[in-house]
């Protein structure tokens, strides 16, 4: 088989790329090792930056998002129970939308298939070859039968644990990483959100985040040890700890409900440079990971493939490779700003084991400053809603 762009991975990056390429009249195929049901059920991100929602509308996949997405004009930051609001609308005249990543994935898959796009689910033994030639190859198996796709370009959208990044020869890539000494215990519950917007809560017991998926489904997180055993936590203990990490007034409003999803996620910051080798281009989690405190992961993946699609369009229209050659530089400018912001939000809001009393007081001063200074809260707001995409 032959295609202009072979895409590995049907997550937000791969799916969004295939839609962007279709709009540009560029052929692609997506190969994915999980089932459609699996990828559509995978619970992950929840926040769409303002420009991401605009892009989905522009691509004609924003209808359900506009109907079911929750538009938020700000967030609350709790400081040992005292809630202070960061008003995005007033500060930067922008909003965010709460719409689960699994809903984004469902919409993108449905749209791509409706266009007649090809998505091969449940493949195995994926590999790439001839990356430094003009005809790179993707090999995989479908129902045990070997398949081969000859491409002009390969998009490595296969996430942090994919095969694309490791397929780049040794010595080409430099990795930058920071691992945090805590993780998040996350739950989904059949219970109404405790507040109409998100609460990022710093307490002497640790961080907690009160978010949601709808007006009847809450998404809740607790700072725990990075290797915490989820089986140690009964639902009741989770609810009790969530009540301890907000003010008594807010705790009194926290309605419990059936917990139907729970797990522990470790936290890391990771970037690989460059994000390309020959005709292989890495996008999204295949190239970078951010701690979820800044709600950047999925949005950053979409930004990468927007830049890649523009570079491919320019190449096929003019044969110029300048945007392709500049892909890494263009993406990293946004990625490192997102890393900075995610690190800032994570270290400001989490209880860092081993911190001294001085560190705690400095951290409280930072929280006090960021939530009371117009300049500081404007800086937080412009990063949280999404820096301009140019
Ligand atoms: P993805 O990992 O989403 O997609 C990669 C796809 O490639 C997957 O479908 C995978 O099955 C497929 N694949 C892998 N190897 C393959 C192979 N060999 N062959 C074929 N296919 C292959 N971000 C936020 O903004 N907020 C959050 O709260 C948040 N929570 C998260 C919680 C968890 C547990 C995780 C893991 C991530 C979380 N993220 C969060 C980040 C997440 O949303 C990612 O940024 C986002 O999924 C990135 O999208 P992709 O780059 O498309 O990668
Ligand atoms: C979520 O809704 O899952 C979510 C929201 C904001 C974050 C992280 C996760 O910073």
Which key phrases capture this entry?
390 residues; alpha+beta; FAD/NAD(P)-binding domain; eight-stranded mixed beta sheet; 14 helices; 19 strands; 30% strand; globular; binds arabino-flavin-adenine dinucleotide; binds P-hydroxybenzoic acid
Named once each, the bound ligands are: arabino-flavin-adenine dinucleotide, P-hydroxybenzoic acid
**Fraction of helical residues:** 25-40%
User: Cα-atom Rg, whole angstroms?
Assistant: 21 Å
User: CATH class of the domain at 2-51 and 60-69 and 99-176 and 268-349, anyone?
Assistant: Alpha Beta
Distance between the termini: 35 Å
The CATH superfamily of the domain at 2-51 and 60-69 and 99-176 and 268-349 is FAD/NAD(P)-binding domain
| Structural class designation | alpha+beta
Strand share of the residues? 25-35%
CATH architecture of the domain at 2-51 and 60-69 and 99-176 and 268-349: 3-Layer(bba) Sandwich
Mean pLDDT: 98
The coarse overall form would be: globular
Major β-sheet profile: 8 strands, mixed
Number of helices: 14
Number of E-type strands: 19
CATH fold annotation of the domain at 2-51 and 60-69 and 99-176 and 268-349: FAD/NAD(P)-binding domain
Which stretches are low in confidence, meaning pLDDT under 50 for 5 or more residues running? none
């Amino acid at each position: 088989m032959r295609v202009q762009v072979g895409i590995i991975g049907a997550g937000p990056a791969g799916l969004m790329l295939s839609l962007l390429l279709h709009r540009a009249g560029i052929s692609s195929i997506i190969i994915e090792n999980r089932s459609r049901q699996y990828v559509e059920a995978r619970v992950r991100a929840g926040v769409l930056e303002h420009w991401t929602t605009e892009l989905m509308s522009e691509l004609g996949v924003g209808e359900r998002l506009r109907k079911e997405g929750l538009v938020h004009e700000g967030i609350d930051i709790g400081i040992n129970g005292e809630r202070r609001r960061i008003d995005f609308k007033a500060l930067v005249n922008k909003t965010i939308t709460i719409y689960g990543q699994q809903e984004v994935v469902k919409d993108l898959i449905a749209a791509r298939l409706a266009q007649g796009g090809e998505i091969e689910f449940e493949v195995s033994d994926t590999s790439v070859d001839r990356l430094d030639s003009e005809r790179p190859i993707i090999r995989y198996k479908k129902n045990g039968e070997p398949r081969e796709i000859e491409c002009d370009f390969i998009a490595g959208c296969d996430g942090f644990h994919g095969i694309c990044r490791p397929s780049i020869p040794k010595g080409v890539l430099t990795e930058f990483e920071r691992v945090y000494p805590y993780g998040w215990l996350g739950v989904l519950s059949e219970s109404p959100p405790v507040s109409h917007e998100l609460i990022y809560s710093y307490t002497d017991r640790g961080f907690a985040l009160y978010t949601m998926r709808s007006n009847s489904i809450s998404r809740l997180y607790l700072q725990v040890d990075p290797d915490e055993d989820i089986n140690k936590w009964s639902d009741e203990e989770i609810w009790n700890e969530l009540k301890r990490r907000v003010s008594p007034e807010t705790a009194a409003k926290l309605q419990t409900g059936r917990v139907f999803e729970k797990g522990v996620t470790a936290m890391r910051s990771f970037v690989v440079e460059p994000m390309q080798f020959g005709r292989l281009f890495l996008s999204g989690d295949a190239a970078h990971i951010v701690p979820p405190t800044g709600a950047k992961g999925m949005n950053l993946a979409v930004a990468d493939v927007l830049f890649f699609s523009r570079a491919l369009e320019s190449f096929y229209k003019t044969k110029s490779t300048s945007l392709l050659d500049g892909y890494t530089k263009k993406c990293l400018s946004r990625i490192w700003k997102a890393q900075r912001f995610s690190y800032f939000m994570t270290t400001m809001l989490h209880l860092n084991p081993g911190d001294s009393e001085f560190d705690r007081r400095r951290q409280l001063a930072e929280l006090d400053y960021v939530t009371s200074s117009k300049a500081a809260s404007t800086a937080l707001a412009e990063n949280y809603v999404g820096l301009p995409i140019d």
